[in-house]
User: Fold Putative ABC transport system ATP-binding protein from Fontibacillus solani.
Amino acid sequence: MEKLIEFKNVAKEYKVGEVPIKALDGVDFSISEGEFVVVLGASGAGKSTILNILGGMDTATSGQVFVGGQEITKLNEKRLTRYRGEKIGFVFQFYNLIPNLNAMENVEFAAEVCKDHLDAKDILRKVGLSNRIKNFPSQLSGGEQQRVAIARAVAKNPLLLLCDEPTGALDYVTGKAVLKLLEDLNRETKKCVVLVTHNSAIAQMADKIIKVKSGRIESITINESRQSAEGIEW
Ligand SMILES: Nc1ncnc2c1ncn2[C@@H]1O[C@H](COP(=O)(O)OP(=O)(O)OP(=O)(O)O)[C@@H](O)[C@H]1O
Assistant:
């Protein structure tokens, strides 16, 4: 399989007052085309920092990050913004939908800047929301809002789908349904999904599990027996 993502000796340091905080310290890993990857670790381990650097929402202090053959650690702010807008679909824990746009408009608004974007209505149908397209976020349940957020990310037809604790605000059943949706999208579209979580049960869904501890890689495991979202329990 082609290498899609590569982190080479990546470090991230935050300065809070005079005190430097090493959020990442010498992180190396690679991810192949089409892989479903779970980044696992305790609170504060550095998971979101990895995802944010990968998605161009944050920058590394040192080291190199390659995505689809492009070194994103070399991009200036303007090109990084374009990379983020065109290549990355984000799904967050708290959905981040625009409250005064309905479901359809939320998806269209995000997708329209992307050249190869997909049809918003088709994607909303795919995530099981064809009868809610005119609803505003406040009229939708948490699980439905997360489906809109996933539709919004997918409609951009991005290179990568990055998900930061996508089930963190959802109950067990709804959370599993959202995981099933991400799994189906990964299998059907062959899009690479990188999902950050502290929930080790979710790791069973992955092709590759990257464990992070105190800003370093603790282990990288290839999972030969990937479980379906329906089959995992926590
Ligand atoms: N903007 C920031 N300024 C200062 N320190 C930060 C900042 N962002 C993150 N950190 C620190 O970097 C470390 C890694 O944070 P990160 O958010 O990546 O962890 P995480 O594994 O995603 O945790 P959680 O599961 O709680 O979200 C933590 O010690 C955190 O306090």
Q: What stands out?
A: The longest strand covers residues 3-16. The mean pLDDT is 94. Helices lie at 47-54, 77-87, 103-111, 120-126, 142-155, 172-189.
